[in-house]
Specification:
alpha/beta, Rossmann fold, 19 helices, about 40% helix, elongated, disordered N terminus
Length: about 450
């Protein structure tokens, strides 16, 4: 990580370096991080991983900056309530849970019946109706957080695709509070083809959501400088905000440690690890993330098959559950003749075992078509795992000189990386330094303080 990048994002170059300086204020300022969706859904992918780590680090990181910080979630009956921490999701506690499979089956049945869009819309309308009917009760119950002047509610969780209680923020504003937004990406607006199938939301509906959001919040904090560029790119085609000014934006970086696991002592290795990463069938590439068109798993499998056809050695381990619009790929994997031999699919892996996967893999392979950050890149480098990434600006921003990049026009570049690894040309990163989640959270909070003045 360059010195200039560290200075621009408010994080230190070395994990053992000093924390950001405390804000120059004589009174305690309170910052609440919204975690409603993560607390209610209990998932462990993408945004949920980030939210859980930020909330769990917020109290300590806040104290380091002279702030009082905690999570907050919206209860339809009581309004916003404090959340000291978020427990590990169900998939972390029990890797054999079938809850995800059940949800997927229900979704498939509704989709075949042509009722998926209708059911989602009905749930959305029901949530809105419940919030509206309970708003009067929440006002008189006085059970929500007692907002004070200077308080900040940072919307760190998802605010789209569900009935977010925007009107309930009025009390916070009336008492002199501010509202900020963590912006993870602008992919639904720039690449709507990756989202329309899953969410059944057209680009126009995403655009209406964004126009509402940018009027409702006072500032935004992105997870990369590339996302700032994407926000400006989208906003350039929209009418100005009511204030007449652009949405104030800054960026910070996500943490590299897997839920605070000790890199030196990741725990005992599971029995299946040798089957997946051992043997003499060549270097094992590792893919981490939900199977979806944007993650581009088919590209990696195509590259593997090209290596196999030429008599070369390669193995592929896929870690992640089934996402959307991936039926053909899932069928291809499950019916593949190399499944269980040189191709492996691990649908549910906890962070302890994921650390082992990073340490044993020849490289993290990430051929994504679009990203806001791509957290597995820094997770892998933090565990001394090489990274082979598609040549995207955000990947170069995050991976820097520690990753190797390949174009997406053909699989030849990725095939070449596999062949070089088989020949011994695949060094592991030794001097990679990146903020942990505590430092990431401190950087986020420091940006909040500076942006609200």
């Amino acid at each position: 990580m360059s010195r200039e990048y560290a200075q621009s994002t408010g994080v230190t170059r070395d994990r053992a370096g000093p924390a950001p300086s405390a804000p120059t204020t004589t009174r305690t300022q309170r910052i609440f991080l919204d975690c409603t969706r993560t607390r209610c859904d209990g998932l462990n992918t993408g945004i949920q991983r980030v939210v859980r780590n930020l909330v769990n680090q917020s109290s300590q990181a806040g104290r380091n900056l002279g702030l009082e910080c905690t999570g907050a979630w919206f209860d339809p009956f009581r309004g916003f309530q404090p959340v000291p921490n978020l427990s590990p999701p169900q998939s972390q506690k029990n890797s054999n849970t079938r809850s995800g499979t059940g949800v997927r089956l229900v979704r498939e049945v509704l989709g075949r019946a042509g009722c998926l869009d209708l059911s989602r819309r009905a749930i959305f309308e029901l949530r809105q109706w419940r919030q509206a009917t309970l708003r009067h009760w929440r006002h008189w119950s006085r059970q929500e957080i007692d907002w004070q002047p200077g308080d900040v509610l940072l919307l760190a969780d998802q605010t789209f695709a569900w009935a977010f209680p925007w009107r309930d923020l009025d009390r916070l504003r009336r008492r002199g509070g501010r509202v900020g937004l963590v912006i993870y990406d602008m992919i639904p607006l720039l690449y709507p083809q990756f989202y329309e199938t899953e969410t059944l939301l057209s680009r126009d509906r995403w655009l209406r959501w964004w126009q509402q959001v940018r009027e409702q919040v006072d500032f935004g904090i992105t997870i990369s400088r590339a996302v700032i560029d994407d926000v400006r790119r989208v906003d350039a085609a929209l009418p100005p905000r009511a204030s007449g000014t652009d949405l104030p934006l800054r960026s910070f970086v996500l943490g590299a440690d897997l839920d605070g696991l000790d890199v030196r002592q990741p725990g005992p290795e599971p029995d299946w690890l040798e089957t997946v990463f051992g043997g003499d069938s060549g270097p094992t590439g590792l893919m981490v993330g939900t199977i979806s068109p944007r993650k581009n798993h088919s590209f990696t499998l195509d590259a593997c098959e090209q290596v196999w056809r030429s008599g070369g050695d390669a193995r592929l381990a896929i870690v992640g559950g089934v996402g959307w619009d991936s039926d053909r790929l899932v069928q291809r994997i499950r019916q593949h003749p190399e499944l269980g031999r040189r191709l492996f699919w691990l649908e549910r892996v906890g962070d302890q075992d994921l650390a082992h996967c990073y340490r044993r893999a020849a490289a993290l392979v990430t051929p994504s078509l679009a990203e806001g950050f791509n957290l597995p890149i820094v997770e892998a480098l933090h565990q001394r795992c090489p990274v082979w990434a598609s040549d995207l600006p955000v990947h170069r921003e995050v991976g820097g000189t520690y990753a190797r990049y390949f174009p997406l026009e053909t699989v030849d570049g990725l095939v070449d990386l596999w062949r070089r690894a088989a020949a011994g040309d695949n060094p592991r990163p030794r001097d990679f330094h990146w903020p942990d989640w505590n430092q990431s959270c401190q950087s986020l909070l420091q940006n909040v303080v500076e942006m609200v003045g």
